[in-house]
Write a structure and sequence with these properties.
With about 190 residues, the protein is mainly α. It has two domains: about 110 residues, Rna Polymerase Sigma Factor, Chain: A (Orthogonal Bundle); about 50 residues, Winged helix-like DNA-binding domain superfamily/Winged helix DNA-binding domain (Arc Repressor Mutant, subunit A), CATH 1.10.10.10. It is built from nine helices and no strands.
């Protein structure tokens, strides 16, 4: 007897596979951990880079996210990807708080990260986006990245950031207004 096809091809099976990978990785299965990293690292890196505005910090945050994920228990209340993004956002916030305590280290690292990006990216649009995101507060940057760059729904963002959906909506509105005002004559 054939199995019924999922409503979105591959989606039901992928979620089950991700959940099983997380459980196996949590029990020490290195192959499952590598498969999970292979599947999700690129996506997480994109979010981390947008939140930290620094390639090295983004890599560190992604690594810390996977270590934290293996060390914690996945309850299945959301998709594995949403759960990983929630961990990543918390790790990025912790890094930001740590850096805020020592502003001189942040300035030197941001300068190095920006010159690295200019040398490697070669794409003005990415630099412009990076500059615009860097001008926002961490709270506003997170909602812009999760909504506008990653395309998450308001409910998913609220779950990831652990705030009410109304807070997500107001932060998003304020962030958009701030960007509109700061970069009024940009285009």
């Amino acid at each position: 007897m054939a199995k019924a096809a999922p409503s979105v091809p591959g989606e039901t099976f992928k979620v089950a596979d991700d959940t099983e990978l997380v459980r196996k990785a949590g029990r020490g299965d290195e192959a499952a951990f590598r498969a999970l990293v292979d599947r999700e690292a690129r996506y997480l890196y994109g979010i981390a880079h947008a939140l930290t505005d620094n390639a090295a910090d983004a890599e560190d945050v992604v690594q810390e996210t996977f270590v934290a994920a293996v060390g914690s228990r996945f309850r299945g209340e959301a998709s594995v990807r949403t759960w990983l993004v929630k961990i990543l956002v918390r790790r990025a916030a912790m890094l930001h708080r740590k850096r805020r305590r020592s502003p001189e280290s942040l300035d030197s690292e941001k300068a190095g990260g920006l010159s690295d990006e200019i040398a490697t990216a070669g794409c003005e649009a990415r630099l412009d986006l990076s500059t615009m995101l860097a001008s926002l507060s961490p709270e506003h940057r997170a909602v812009i990245v999760l909504r506008e760059v990653q395309g998450l729904k308001y409910g998913e963002i609220a779950e990831i950031l652990r705030v009410p959906q109304g807070t997500v909506e107001s932060r998003l509105h304020r962030a958009r207004e701030e960007l509109r005002m700061r970069f009024k004559g940009y285009l």
